[in-house]
Amino acid sequence: MSRIVIIGGHGKVALHLAGILSGDGHQVTSLFRNPEHADEVAEMGARPVTADVESLSTDDMAQLLKGHDAVVWSAGAGGGDPDRTYAVDQDAAIRSMDAAARAGVDRYVMVSYMGASINHRIPPEHAMFAYAEAKSTADEYLRGSALSWTILGPSALTLDAGTNKIAVGDNLKDGQVPRQDVARVIAAVLGRPETAGRTIQFTHGDTPIEEAIR
51: domain range? Predict the structure, then answer.
């Protein structure tokens, strides 16, 4: 049994993940911004904690992470406002990495997106520019940290039922993947310490998740 904290715990992927992990006997803590979401989070077996990571300091975040075995970053500003995108997807994400190190939580799983790269080539005038910049900067910071990190790069997310099968690779064509399967991939890498130090890009496919991530 592990103690796992999910940052961005009311997101659809995070809710699936909480259900999977708690169902497997792990202790799950989910951090989220809106106190009205506490009951929905608790229904998935997680301990709900209201916390706005956008405004939390590194020390405050470290206090919330302390005592856990792993951190999953599944938070995001949701696009739209570039300033908030940088504040959450980049700055708060980086603070959470520093906080994990400060709290002695070595394992860290980042949910990024397929194609995230400091060389993303998205022009500044594009609506996705701030998101691409923020995510790629956070990913690079994580790669340079001393944490046992895994970065996940799923393709476009859908609400379809999961199939427990994916395709993995660095040269995949754009595709789609159910959020439920993204949650299953997170749970799978948490259970495989040997995935530390890897960036895993994936989309819907024909290979069972456990086999695909080996």
Answer: 3-212
